[in-house]
Amino acid sequence: METTSRTGTTDLTRVPGADAAPGEARPVDGFLRASFPFYGLDTAFAGPRWLLRTGSGADGQIEHGSLGHGDTPSYLTEASPSATREHRFAVVVTVASRPVRRSADGAGYLDATSVSSAAWLAGSGLLSCTWPARMERGMREDWLAQQTGVAWELADELQGAHVSSDWSALTLPVDGRPLPFHYRESEYGWVLAGSTHDGQAHLGAYGRGLSAYGLAFSQIGDLASYE
């Protein structure tokens, strides 16, 4: 299985409300270019909302994007191992359903996007705000590569006939209708993934401090509340 990229596509260091310099692309531009709607927490969530990044395929089309809710995550530090528990946030990842995708060299095709694509993007997003920032650089990169590989393998298992026991079932409202998700927890937070009712997109989400069991999702018609 291939998704847009196995490298980091989500930037959790952005400060909400930061404006781009004149002439620079704004974070919202990628979202506005997308041909599919994005999902976020529904109107019952009254906290801050903020934009993350979009990711594109080899043909330049936007393939996924992430919207944040609550506190901006901070990196785990060895000096303050409990710091991650002080931030309450949920990030929702929308992945466009792409049955056919060109490879970067244009000579072939990649596998279709799937619920596993959403699961991996959510899992690696959670990792990006929890890896030990004060670790020696080479060791840190090895640790992140190893953990990202684990996240990918777990996501890949969602494609098979038998889902790994690391994942459990969780049903949450999406646009007011119950939708089944794959769900797993870790000491750093939770991750979930599923596909929308109409099959036009795959949803992933990750968070910490906010219980996943009380969340509900909906299409975002106006991104202004996230800028």
From TrEMBL:
Residues 1-13 have a biased composition (Low complexity). Residues 1-26, 62-81 are annotated as: Disordered. It comes from the Bacteria. This is Uncharacterized protein.
